[in-house]
């Protein structure tokens, strides 16, 4: 940020890794008179930025949990793989998941734990859970962790237990897992659409034009019914 400010750039695009720790970047940019846009992950002082461009992560959590709840018939046992502590996407997706769970008293959360978006950590975490818990579904806050859950299930020959796995992002390996049936679904975070909107808005900001405070790119569920539209 100091380097960008020293170079007197026209616009700064910030994708914060920590909701609180990155807040001073917005303050510094504003003090330097450089417009700053927040991209794809929120921040505590997002209202002090020019705008936010990205997805609503609460809706991602709600969307994946609603999908799994319906697949489970509104009852059963789940575990939740969370993103890193302090990351806004992780925080908000967890809120979204629990928003939906309030409507399903017969769905029990056996465990929820951060696996930091990491496939290996998610794999070892789910391996431990499988040994001591009767799990019906793994609700993961991203695809990497969901793939770790798939590896754990396959590694323990637990495929016959019919454990549903869902993730977020729709990365290529996640889409392949949906196609094969290893994952029930993934929630598409349309990175291309976000990137294009960022550049479009940043160009307007640099030209001194007035822009909206928020540009939300909607999420979409991808499962066996529409996977062929996304996996080329």
Give an account of the 3D structure.
This protein is an alpha/beta fold. It contains nine helices and ten strands. The protein has helices at residues 2-6, 23-31, 57-71, 88-101, 119-132, 143-155, 172-180, 191-206, 227-230, and strands at residues 12-14, 36-39, 51-54, 76-82, 107-114, 137-140, 164-169, 185-188, 214-216, 220-223. The strands form two sheets. The chain has a six-stranded mixed β-sheet with strand order 5-4-6-7-8-10, with helices on both faces. α3 runs parallel beside α4 (88-101) and α5 packs across α6 (143-155). The longest helix is centred in the last third of the chain and has 16 residues, at 191-206. The mean pLDDT is 95.
Quick synopsis:
The chain is α/β, with parallel strands linked by helices and 232 residues long.
Topology of this protein?
Layout: H1 2-6, E1 12-14, H2 23-31, E2 36-39, E3 51-54, H3 57-71, E4 76-82, H4 88-101, E5 107-114, H5 119-132, E6 137-140, H6 143-155, E7 164-169, H7 172-180, E8 185-188, H8 191-206, E9 214-216, E10 220-223, H9 227-230
Parallel strand pairs: 1-2, 2-3, 3-9, 4-5, 4-6, 6-7, 7-8
Antiparallel strand pairs: 8-10
Helix pairs in contact: 3-4, 5-6
